[in-house]
Write a structure and sequence with these properties.
- With 351 residues, this protein is an all-beta fold.
- It has a domain of 147 residues: YVTN repeat-like/Quinoprotein amine dehydrogenase (Methylamine Dehydrogenase, Chain H, 7 Propeller).
- It contains no helices and 29 strands.
- Strands 24, 25, 26, 27 and 28 form a five-stranded antiparallel beta sheet that branches. Strands 3-2-1-29 form a four-stranded antiparallel beta sheet, with no helix packed on it.
- Strand 10 and strand 11 form a beta hairpin.
- It is globular.
Length: 351
Amino acid sequence: MAKDRYVAYVGTYTHGSSVGIHIFDVDAEKGKMVERKVVPINNPSDVIVSTSGKFLYSIADEGVQSFRILPDGDLEPINSVWTGGMRGCYLEVDEQDRYLFVAGYHDGRITMMNLNEDGFIGEIADGIFHKGIGVNITDRSSMPHVTCVKVTPDQQSVCAVDSGLDQVKIYRIDRERNKMELEDILRCELDSGPKMLRFDRQHKFAYVLCEMDNVIEVYEVGARNDDVDPFKMIQRISTIEPDEKQRAAASGIEFSPDGNHLFVTNAGINTVIIYDVDKETGVLTPLFHCKTSGDYPKAVAVMPDNKHFIVLSHETDEIFIYNMNYEDCYFLQDSRPIKIEQPNCIFIHKL
């Protein structure tokens, strides 16, 4: 019986020697990645594969770029479209592949782009600039900065994480009018710097990673009605030790494919912390944390075997693969680092 085939798409900043999206063949059983080719594109700082698995969308200096995914995982360019604002930083698609959502760090904008069935990115459906100003206790910008966009599990709304305002704005998706309408705001701790949001595999809980506070805020996601708040905070847990706060910045967050564990990277102190996930309550329990190789572990991804995980060390231009031992609470570097200039994002795709 043939085993499943996977590729990994790694986006980079291309103002150095890198030229675009690096395609790797992935051996999930052995925890290995072998680079096959690079597809030219300007600064693909985030990439995402459509729900259908047929297309890949990427951030680009020009806006957003679409590609057709060929049977071997290679990418064939389709079209490029401006997003109506400054260069984006994060992408999301809905389950119907009807919309592509773009987060704008530089201009504090969330953009909703129309998608066609043939993979072409259509015109802008809607776009909203966040307004206001946050606090500036630490040395960081408190202007609006949208760092992540995630569609809610019921597909009714999209969450826009704003690190400058310390908020997660929730917009209802009006598919009849192709509009987004603000319906709720999650107000995180002041100066916490929310950066990323993930929903658990069972779609019952939301996890907001706060970069400045180095914490994860856990929310129970309930039914939407006038009497019940659909997002109820149930836990706030640190990603670091108390004496590490001045040197650390929570950076990446991802679930293991089986949903049993949550992985978080901490830049500055260069660590990964792994949590056990209680699937019934959503509560996180720290399993262990450990130092990683390289500098600035910006993103993390867990391979389909649930045992190997990948860390992109942005500042030292390397990809590291680690082998997890959950029972004895340690991980080991599984192979030599892969050299790649300024890796920024990774998406593992099953062919």
